[in-house]
Amino acid sequence: MDAFMSQESYIIMARILSAACLAGLIGAEREYKRHPAGFRTHLLVGTGACLAMVMALFGFQSYLEENPGVSAYDPSRLASYVISGVGFLGAGTIIVQGVSIKGLTTAASIWVVAAIGLAAGAGMYFAAILTTVVVLLSLFFLNNIERFFRSSPRDEKIEVMLDNQYAALSEIVEMFEKENVLVKKVTGSADNTEQQERKISFVFHIEGSNQMNRTHLYDQLVKTKGVLEVEMTLPS
């Protein structure tokens, strides 16, 4: 047992456990926000990267000692393969929906936890911990700053008059989702006088921005089955 748990074994155990903990912290944040790659994925990527780094540092010592004439050994080569390989895993979390792309932050976090695992595997605990803190701060708090630099969103209202004999409300909501328009609230006027004429109106409260193509959105609404009238105010 003593031979198995040598000083080198304790070092390897400390590095792998530290990588698992640091990567797990970032994964917990992704899990909390219900992203495709969560706690287990990040923990596994960070731990695997750490193991690869530990193997590069300690796994070939006996071979090098038995073959002193072998060419120069560079442990960083294995680490570079880990970084490039993790890129394919991160690409699997990216989802393209129309003109929008989702999952880039999760893909980046997977790449970062691989680097954190490599740093922990190399014994660079300070760099690994500092990077984890920076990543967590960016994921938790910098999202609001990122929104500040984007075009300022504002609530807008779109009133849609429907023929009551068609169930077109679900189609309108699906159309908004397809156009990547965030619907914050829907209100209906079911008790107005027009209800007697088999008509009903809905007011969609959406989050608008300067990039939103309102003319295209208006055309799509008018073409929707059951839509009789659309009233929307274009920003000045």
Could you provide a short overview of the structure?
The chain has about 240 residues and is of the alpha+beta class. The chain has 2 domains: about 5-150, no CATH class; about 155-230, ACT domain (Alpha-Beta Plaits, 2-Layer Sandwich), CATH 3.30.70.
Describe, in plain words, how this protein is organized in 3D.
This protein is an alpha+beta fold and 236 residues long. The chain has two domains: 7-148, no CATH class; 154-232, 2-Layer Sandwich (Alpha-Beta Plaits), CATH 3.30.70.260. The chain contains nine helices and six strands; from the N terminus they run H-H-H-H-E-E-H-H-H-E-H-E-E-H-E. The protein has helices spanning 7-32, 39-58, 61-66, 76-91, 104-121, 125-140, 142-149, 169-178, 214-223, and strands spanning 95-97, 100-102, 154-163, 182-189, 199-208, 227-232. The strands form two sheets. A four-stranded antiparallel β-sheet has the order 4-5-3-6, covered by helices on one side. Strands 1-2 form a two-stranded antiparallel ribbon. Helix 1 runs antiparallel to helix 5 (104-121). It is elongated and about 90 Å long. The model is unreliable at 191-195 (pLDDT under 50).
